[in-house]
Amino acid sequence: MPTVGFVGLGNMGGALAANLVQRGHRVVAYDSAGPARTPSFAATCKDVAEVARTARTVVLSLPDGHVSEKVAREIAEAAGRRTTYVVDTSTVGVTAARRVADLLAEHGIGHADAPVSGGVAGARARTLTIMYAAPDEVCAAVEPVLADLSDRRRRVGERPGMAQALKLANNFLSATALAATSEAVAFGRAAGLDPAQMLDVLNASSGRNGATEDKFPRHVLTGHYDSGFANSLMAKDVDLYLRAVAEQGGPDEVGTLIGALWQRFADAEPGADFTRVHRFVEATRRHDR
Ligand code: NAD
User: Which of 71, 127, 135, 268 has an alpha carbon within 20 to 30 A of 213's alpha carbon?
Assistant: First the structure.
């Protein structure tokens, strides 16, 4: 099994790197927060350059496009570099994915735009969807690594940014469904309905969505709020979506409302689990009355 590099071992990266280890890869990893995040049986590198000197393919799971670009530059410019392919699983937006791909191409490194959806639980269960866009030659080289990251993969194009566009559309829908479900459940509770029974009926009716089927039962009704996805990341994703829509001059009426709500929530409770938006929505209503 070839050695695979991994940079960014947070909630999502830690789970994905562990999947590679479980599939028998030697993983060499780096996170700027320190070695405590390295999964067991993976080796910790002292910096990004050491990862680039050791692994032919490097997977990134980083907070945003600025960080992906910085890390891509460190990989490209590492002395004695071995890396020839970078798989970026981060949500960075359309323009950042193109910038990162161009930067890497200048150094002869192939780039796969490969954001993911399905949460940390999905990563552990190997049901995470990896949507990816890359030229044929890059796909042929990185597909074995993608297969060891998750069992669900969809190639959606050849050009960098195409997978990001799909990921942003997905997260706009996910953000909308969770915010709208939060308002609907607040309404039902105030009308005397039992939220668990509401969800049961909604899931057998036309209003069902990812929040009614998954996020509410697992994280809201249980009071656990532990999906492992921060509200700041969701606010970033909807903002990236709105920027990409604005570049096209596309319709954004619903998106603007949803983006403003997630930004207010991220500002009010920085770093909170995104499923807590339900409480934020309920509290806002009481406050406004
Ligand atoms: P996170 O904040 O938990 O992890 C990011 C990690 O990157 C941190 O450990 C941080 O220390 C590290 N990091 C930051 N700058 C670095 C640098 N210069 N060099 C090395 N490491 C650096 O975030 P996450 O939830 O793991 O998300 C990672 C990416 O995956 C984001 O782009 C996010 O939008 C996306 N994503 C996350 C989820 C989820 O459920 N958590 C789902 C889908 C997509």
Answer: 268
Summarize pLDDT for 189-215 with one digit per residue, the tens. Answer: 999 999 999 999 999 999 999 999 999
| Ligand 1 mean position, distance from CA 9 (Å) | 7
CA-closest residue to ligand 1 atom 1: 10
**233 in ligand 1 pocket by Cβ < 6 Å?**
yes
CB 73 within 8 A of CB 45: no
How many Å lie between the centroid of ligand 1 and the Cα of residue 287?
33
**Whether residue 61 has its Cβ less than 6 Å from ligand 1:** yes
Q: Contact 120/11 with Cβ under 8 angstroms?
A: yes
CA distance 239 to 93: 9
CA distance readout (Å), 179 to 183, 200, 241: 6, 18, 16
Q: pTM of this prediction?
A: 0.96
Quick one: which of 69, 97, 73, 221 has its CA closest to 168?
A: 97
Q: Would you name the residues annotated as active-site residues?
A: 167
What are the structural domains of the chain?
3-158 (3.40.50.720), 164-288 (1.10.1040.10)
| 169 Rama sector, left if φ>0, alpha if ψ -120 to 50, beta otherwise | alpha
Query: Quick one: how many helices (H) and strands (E) in the chain?
Result: 12, 9
Q: Which atom of ligand 1 is nearest to the CA of 91?
A: 32
Listed in sequence order, the residues at least 6 apart from 174 whose beta carbon sits closer than 8 Å to its beta carbon are: 117, 210, 211, 234
Atom of ligand 1 nearest to the CA of 92: 32
How far apart, in whole angstroms, are the C-alpha atoms of residue 55 and residue 152? Answer: 24
Q: 97-117: per-residue pLDDT in tens?
A: 999 999 999 999 999 999 999
